[in-house]
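Here's what a typical entry looks like (Poly(Hydroxyalkanoate) depolymerase family esterase):
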Amino acid sequence: MARKSRSLTRLMLDAATGIARLQRRAMKLATSTATKTAAANAKALKASTPRPTTTKTGTGKTSALTPPASPRKRGAAGAGAAALGSGTLSQGTLARSPLQRSVRRPVPAAPVAAAATGTWVAGVFSTPPMQGELIGRLDYFVYLPSSRPAVGLPLIVMLHGCSQSASDLAAGTRMNRLAEREGFAVLYPQQSRGAQSHRCWRWFQPEAGVGAAEADAIANLADSVTQQYRLDPERRYVAGMSAGAGMAALVALRHAHRFAAVGMHSGAVVGAASSTSAGLSTMRRGTLRDPLSLLAGVLGANTRPGRLEDDAALPALILQGMRDPVVAPRNAEQLTKQFLHVNGMDGETPVTAELAVATPDAYRRLDYRRGSKTVVRVCEIAQLDHAWAGGDPAHRFHARRGPDASALLWRFFRSHRREGATAE
């Protein structure tokens, strides 16, 4: 009986030893497999990640590279309540200063704007804290064409819409390809998710610590880029799409002495909103108030209420899709009234032309002229909804329909110059 008990015990011990040995082998195999998988993933990630070339430019450092392609998505920029929200800016100053030192790898971006061959530079703009004022710490991208030296080139500041990035706008508008051909630089500031969760520029909160602070930071960034690359301060322009159009208007009105013209694609009437809900209402319906009465709250210190100084006319191009379900076409009518007033042209009759008739690109152009110069131009694009006209539909918020909005902007901008402007 004792012999049987010892045999059974030995058998159980042998079985336990075998099980333990199998468990150790399984663990070793699992660890080896995980290690190989992790190594393979790391190798693939390294192969797919571009290597930035760090270069010194001016007083700071930036990373120049050709970023990877962005995902293909479609939608309506700024559509619905998710398009607007609240956020706060970090403490700092709005003092004008050169670019601060910044070395960074940018967020994944579209290839240097639709096969353009120039230099794509990424960086962060910030200024040192002073007097406790609010400022935006802005990511930014700059495109410099290879077709000619940067010195003396015009600059277009391009502002994206809600739920977009700077690189989305660059790729979808093909603005860099145009810049390469025509010879101008492009600056793409990018709203941070920390300031606004959907990356909306806060045009709908124009008070000093929010929208005005963002507008001032963008203007200061444009000054710094102008100084750094020795661009032409008399030929600086600002444009945007949707929320970017709202911010472009705010930047231009607050800093009319710094910009030669402004372009607004699918933008809301200026000054009608002071909150998220009011911003959504304005986009959908325009304003029930007199649009001219709204200007005093957004004009900069260099202006008197309601109108810019006589030597600070602000040429404006307004583009609007007539099928836009997000920003009602009524907004374009009210923006037109505002910018006619800003330029001292109340009640002027436009010169009207119907272009590309009976095609998907059909649009109506209204030119308000002072002498031979078009000061305010409106393009009503018949079959366009809430998207950049004539853009690359592979990218979010851009449509094939309509005239090439990028080309329209440049043709309008290049006929205007801000005489005597400097990079402050």
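The CA atoms of residues 154 and 184 lie 5 Å apart.

More examples are in the samples folder.
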